[in-house]
């Protein structure tokens, strides 16, 4: 019987976010499909710690920069000894090192190793050389992001592929734990409809849009609450904005909540008011759990929701439109729930872990 094929995952970030969590989910899914996986990441990084908790094989590599000789030598040794069929790279430093190692491994008589570059953003004008010649494929989480690469007509379209994220819906459904005590106490002390929002605290995530919309919404719904899950650099700015708008009793910054399902299960509606968003995950999870959802019509978000079929879309940054949409959901709970119920079937079909894994295997073996 043939030995299982090995796939490396590399990441040169110290932090952990949706991209890193997705990589860990893919590793587990590929193992279930009969592959061996190995994570190569920075020492003491958050993803290394999380992989240890999940029982996933991992080896620390410095990845200090794209030309770090000790990292190159360590990665080359691992490629030659473990013979991976592909390297799935998530960071710029590890991706370039993986490409150079793949070339050297071939020069030393080994087999060619496919290097798949995962990109969840694109700033500025993309250069064609890297995407045409360095990476076997570049994977984007949405068609919107793919088109941002293809504005450079020199980039070959067949080198940029869309791989929608896979969500462990069964795990999400089973994550029926209780809210942290501090969140539960705040909700108990402030009864009323709950608007939930899970995102890093940065300007492009649109928290200030909802804060300003809330000023109008609470005129019709005086007990409305806005619960923000996440951390980030803008926390002090948001705290100041909440105070300036007189929303202290209506808004709670809950910090990072994992899993997110207990918050969504306690929510009247979920919002994703991003000003920039390659795709987003929070709104997909909300639809799956049957929570009425309102999102910005921006970036890749329209690929995750059907306007007035599975949820509502609002123009980004339009505070009055956001206030109107929130009020509509609160005024029409039956109709809003019907949209959410249709959303579950939509996202289950499009963003399942099974579909993501099958597509990733196809790309690796192509």
Describe the structure.
By secondary structure, the protein is of the alpha/beta class. The protein folds into two domains: 6-166 and 352-365, Glycogen Phosphorylase B (Rossmann fold, 3-Layer(aba) Sandwich), CATH 3.40.50; 170-350, Rossmann fold, CATH 3.40.50.2000. Helices cover 45% and strands 16% of the residues. It has a seven-stranded parallel β-sheet with strand order 3-2-1-4-5-6-7, with helices on both faces. β8, α9 (207-220) and β9 form a beta-alpha-beta unit. The longest helix is centred in the last third of the chain and has 18 residues, at 333-350. The radius of gyration is 22 Å and the shape is elongated. The two termini are 22 Å apart. The model has no long low-confidence stretch (mean pLDDT 95).
Quick recap:
By secondary structure, the chain is of the alpha/beta class. The chain contains 15 helices and 13 strands. Helix 3 (69-82) crosses helix 4 (92-107) and helix 9 crosses helix 13 (319-331).
Count of strand segments: 13
Q: Any idea of the CATH class of the largest domain?
A: Alpha Beta
Overall shape: it is: elongated
How many domains comprise the coordinates? 2
Domain Glycosyltransferase subfamily 4-like N-terminal: 16-168
GO molecular function: glycosyltransferase activity
Organism: Polynucleobacter sp. UK-FUSCHL-C3
Protein name: Glycosyltransferase family 4 protein
Describe the secondary-structure layout.
Blueprint: E1 6-11, H1 18-32, E2 36-41, H2 46-54, E3 58-60, H3 69-82, E4 86-89, H4 92-107, E5 114-118, H5 128-134, E6 137-140, H6 143-149, E7 160-162, H7 169-174, H8 181-189, E8 194-198, H9 207-220, E9 225-229, H10 235-244, E10 251-255, H11 261-265, E11 269-272, H12 282-288, E12 293-296, E13 312-314, H13 319-331, H14 333-350, H15 353-365
Parallel strand pairs: 1-2, 1-4, 2-3, 4-5, 5-6, 6-7, 8-9, 8-11, 9-10, 11-12, 12-13
Helix pairs in contact: 1-15, 3-4, 9-13, 12-14
């Amino acid at each position: 019987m043939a030995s299982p094929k090995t796939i490396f995952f590399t990441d040169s970030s110290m932090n952990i976010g949706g991209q890193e969590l997705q990589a860990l989910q893919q590793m587990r899914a590929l193992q279930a499909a009969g592959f061996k996986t190995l994570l190569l990441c920075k020492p003491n990084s958050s993803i290394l710690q999380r992989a240890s908790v999940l029982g996933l094989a991992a080896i620390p590599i410095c990845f200090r920069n794209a030309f770090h000789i000790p990292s190159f030598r360590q990665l080359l040794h691992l490629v030659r000894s473990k013979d991976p069929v592909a390297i799935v790279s998530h960071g710029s430093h590890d991706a370039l090192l993986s490409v150079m190692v793949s070339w050297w491994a071939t020069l030393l008589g080994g087999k060619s190793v496919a290097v798949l570059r995962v990109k969840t953003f694109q700033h500025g004008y993309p250069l064609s050389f890297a995407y045409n010649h360095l990476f076997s494929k570049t994977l984007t989480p949405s068609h919107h992001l793919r088109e941002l690469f293809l504005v450079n007509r020199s980039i070959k379209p067949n080198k940029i592929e869309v791989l929608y994220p896979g969500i462990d819906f069964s795990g999400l459904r089973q994550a029926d734990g209780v809210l942290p005590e501090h969140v539960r106490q705040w909700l108990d002390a402030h009864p009323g409809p709950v608007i939930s929002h899970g995102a890093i605290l940065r300007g492009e995530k649109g928290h200030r849009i909802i804060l300003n919309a809330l000023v109008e919404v609470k005129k019709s719904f005086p007990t409305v609450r806005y619960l923000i899950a996440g951390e980030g650099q803008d926390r002090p700015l948001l705290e100041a904005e909440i105070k300036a708008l007189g929303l202290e009793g209506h808004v709670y910054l809950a910090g990072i909540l994992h899993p997110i399902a207990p918050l969504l299960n306690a929510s009247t509606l979920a919002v994703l008011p991003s000003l920039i968003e390659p795709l987003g995950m929070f709104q997909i999870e909300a639809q799956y759990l049957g929570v009425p959802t309102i999102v910005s019509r921006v970036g890749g978000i329209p690929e995750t929701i059907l306007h007035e079929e599975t949820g509502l879309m609002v123009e980004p940054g339009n505070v009055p439109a956001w206030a109107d949409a929130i009020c509509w959901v609160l005024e029409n709970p039956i109709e809003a729930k019907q949209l959410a119920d249709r959303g579950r079937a939509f996202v289950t079909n499009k963003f399942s872990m099974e579909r993501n894994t099958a597509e990733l295997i196809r790309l690796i073996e192509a």
